[in-house]
Design a protein that fits this description.
Blueprint: H1 10-17, E1 24-27, H2 34-41, E2 45-50, H3 53-57, E3 63-66, H4 72-78, E4 84-90, H5 95-99, H6 125-131, H7 134-145, H8 150-160, H9 169-180, H10 190-200, H11 203-217, E5 218-228, H12 231-245, E6 247-250, E7 256-259, E8 265-267, E9 273-274, H13 277-282, E10 290-296
Parallel strand pairs: 1-2, 1-4, 2-3, 4-5
Antiparallel strand pairs: 5-10, 6-7, 8-10, 9-10
């Protein structure tokens, strides 16, 4: 079933960003613009970034640049935005991307095994599945998908792909289901598809670069919000903000010394915020979402 993309934790995100009229805000993962338009409605000036041509085409009145959020600092500089009051990253896949079979993100729809958010760049999921070693595939499935049968699945794929390569979403999903069997509510290929999507789009690497680059252009008092849907990206954001929040260490000679990465931040959300039960009921995709917000400290 298709449908419009519903922005996750919209009110909470805009509220925690503390949008101020006339402030400058970057939405590094514009998608279909739900969060960006809410920020604009609150009085903020918004610059969007997205690597998906369809997302850029849907921008309407908001300025959206095609690019990766990992390049946020360079893109902002080209736009003359040397300092900003807030940054948002809403990670993962939008509903329109999942709904379009030709993008190959979902095993629920027959389509090419692609998964590239920018369809013109880089390796597809089929390239990885049919070309990488069993050891590399195991690492992808284990680290990015946290798949408990990563080794078994990886070795079986390598045996199966020659002379019959995996070319469509159903080729791979059906093979994994035959291999592992089906238990519980989730399709057995769920974690493998997540891992491949994250590997194809270098989602962890892009997030790390976006966090570092974004914090470098965030004004003192500005806020950085990150919405994640997988534990690996949530841990990445949590550790980054924790390192920049640092801690005060007591000295033997008296007094304290701050230890941590610069520039300094303070956690606005001590624990990740979660979607309400009502939102999860309306939008099941929000069930796994976590929102973390940090503020750059004036020094």
């Amino acid at each position: 079933m298709g449908g419009a993309h519903i922005p996750v934790m919209l009110e909470e995100t805009v509220g925690l960003l503390a949008v101020k009229p006339g402030g400058r805000y970057i939405d590094g993962t514009f998608g279909r613009g739900g969060h960006a338009r809410a920020i604009a409605s609150a009085g903020g000036e918004v610059l969007g970034i997205d690597r998906d041509d369809e997302a850029v085409a849907s921008a309407g009145e908001i300025r959206v640049v095609k690019g990766n959020h990992g390049d946020i600092r360079e893109i902002a500089a080209k736009e003359g935005w040397d300092e900003v009051d807030g940054i948002l990253l809403d990670l993962g896949v939008s509903s329109p991307q999942l709904d379009e079979a030709g993008r190959g993100f979902s095993f629920m729809r027959e389509g090419p095994l692609d998964m590239r958010m920018d369809g013109a760049c880089g390796q597809s999921a089929a390239d990885l599945v049919n070309g990488e070693s069993a050891e590399r595939l195991e690492e992808i499935f284990r680290v990015l998908g946290e798949e408990p049968q990563s080794r078994r699945i990886a070795r079986a794929i390598v045996r199966e792909r020659d002379p019959r390569p995996f070319l469509t979403t159903s080729d791979l999903a059906d093979f994994i289901e035959r291999l592992t069997g089906r238990r519980g509510a989730h399709h057995p290929a769920t974690r493998v598809f997540q891992a491949l999507r994250m590997a194809v789009n270098d989602e962890v690497g892009e997030l790390e670069r976006a966090l570092e680059g974004g914090l470098g252009i965030l004004a003192p008092g500005g806020r950085f919000a990150v919405i994640t849907f997988e534990s690996v990206t949530d841990r990445t954001a949590k550790r980054f903000f924790a390192a920049h929040a640092g801690r005060e260490v007591s000295l033997q000679q008296g007094g304290t010394r701050w230890e941590g990465e610069l520039p300094r931040t303070a956690n606005v959300t001590r624990r990740a915020a979660r979607a309400s039960a009502e939102e999860v009921r309306r939008n099941p995709r929000s069930r796994s979402a976590k929102l973390r917000v940090a503020e750059r400290i004036r020094t």
